[in-house]
């Protein structure tokens, strides 16, 4: 990989792409190193309390979360659509988009004082809300 990056344009492309990813990986790396040094380091191993164990678990989980988010972002950036994490992200993004669209439709109906439609919409899923509230209303 490193041998394939030979020009300034290639280095800039990698830098721009990784600019938002690398800081999180570096922070997670620092968190892991600090935890290793605090709990294991170059000192004789001692038992840790339940409270310390819980704290260490939170530290490890935070570092894991940061690195897994960075890895997912990397795969999203490169369009690796067939990976599970990318598929789940895209499904969640699609759901969020529909939720926002439904919420905006409800807000518009509220401004238009279409209270009967809003009442109907409250028990419908996002797709049905959008259909109900954004379809052309016949004029009377």
Question: Would you kindly provide a written description of the structure presented here, covering whatever features stand out?
Answer:
The protein has 140 residues and is mainly α. Helices cover 73% and strands 0% of the residues. The chain has six helices and no strands. It has helices spanning 8-18, 22-39, 50-78, 84-111, 115-121, 126-134.
Quick description:
This protein has helices at residues 8-18, 22-39, 50-78, 84-111, 115-121, 126-134. With 140 residues, the chain is an all-alpha fold.
Record the SSE blueprint.
Layout: H1 8-18, H2 22-39, H3 50-78, H4 84-111, H5 115-121, H6 126-134
Helix pairs in contact: 2-3, 4-6, 5-6
Keywords:
6 helices; 140 residues; flat; mainly alpha
Overall, the morphology is flat
pLDDT < 50 stretches: none
Largest sheet: none
Order of helices and strands: HHHHHH
- What would you call the structural class? mainly alpha
Q: What is the overall number of helices? A: 6
End-to-end Cα distance: 67 Å
How much is the radius of gyration in Å? 25 Å
Q: Give the rounded overall mean pLDDT.
A: 90
What is the percent of helical residues?
over 70%
- Would you report the number of β strands? 0
Beta fraction of the residues?
under 5%
